[in-house]
Amino acid sequence: MRLLHHRGRRRRRSAAGRGAGAGWRGGAGGGGTGRAVPGRSAGSGGRRGGVRRGCGHRTRMSNTPFVDSGARRSMMIAAGLISATVAVALIATSWMRGGLSGSSSPDLVPSASFPVEGRANSVMMVPDAILARARDDGAQIAVAGWYQQRRLISCPAPPFQPVPVIEGPCSIAGLLMADPESIVTVFENGMEMRPAIGPSIEVSFDGPDTNWERPLPRLGGSVPLPVVFIGHFDDIRAGGCQPENRTSCADRFVVTDVPWVNGVDRP
């Protein structure tokens, strides 16, 4: 943009310096529209063709007046390119924020302001909770994130007696995610649940009610709910899980309290 503007001024000065009549109406050539008319000059007497008559011969005017429509057109094109670039950047930014989403066209909800405390516990976000899980100490923590409940159409019984709350896929209540990903899509003849792309933890409830959950839509993508959960990893019952399931049992976040949901404190 600056380069185009600079060139326009340089050409205008050049045109203005070529004789007293530079061909601008409203100047020495008379008129008053402020537009440049090719082939006119102050000495042409308003005659067309840029020909000066006198002394029995014709003199072809060599100076070509500057017309700024090309510069304006170039500036408009440049402005259009800049607008298109900004639009692409915004789309890319939206996509990156929910590269965060379970689909290529993420259905994200606005960001939430989570509380800093829940039941006298300092609230951490999901990525920090994942780091805390590695300590294997079973400590009670408060975790903020975006919760999406599961709705399994069918859940076949395993060939063994699972440990309640923590063992097996049927005991998973939902996902607590670091970002508001839309991971469930409801169709007329079924439902699809995708894994989260961003950080997430599997959640089970051991005690608190879930009547605060946001219902799934009748059709379309789900919208997760901002929540704060209090609970623990490394449940003491994990040792009773099947040997191949003990790691997943210990990694399950067992929720024992829900002090905050979607901006509202709960008793």
Description:
The N terminus is likely disordered. The protein is globular, with a radius of gyration of 36 Å. It starts with a helix and ends with a strand. It has four helices and 13 strands. It has about 270 residues and is an alpha+beta fold.
List the SSEs and their pairings.
Blueprint: H1 2-16, E1 51-54, E2 57-60, H2 69-97, E3 117-118, E4 121-125, H3 126-133, E5 141-149, E6 174-177, E7 184-187, E8 190-193, E9 200-205, E10 220-221, E11 225-232, H4 246-251, E12 253-261, E13 264-265
Parallel strand pairs: 4-5, 9-12
Antiparallel strand pairs: 1-2, 3-4, 5-6, 5-11, 6-9, 7-8, 7-10, 11-12, 12-13
Please identify the structural class as seen in this structure.
Answer: alpha+beta
Alpha carbon gap, first and last residue: 59 Å
Number of alpha- plus pi-helical segments: 4
The secondary-structure element order is HEEHEEHEEEEEEEHEE
**Gross geometry:** globular
Biggest sheet layout:
5 strands, mixed, barrel
Task: Give the low-confidence spans.
Answer: 1-62, 86-109
Question: How would you describe this structure in keywords?
Answer:
three-stranded antiparallel sheet; 267 residues; 4 helices; alpha+beta; five-stranded mixed β-barrel
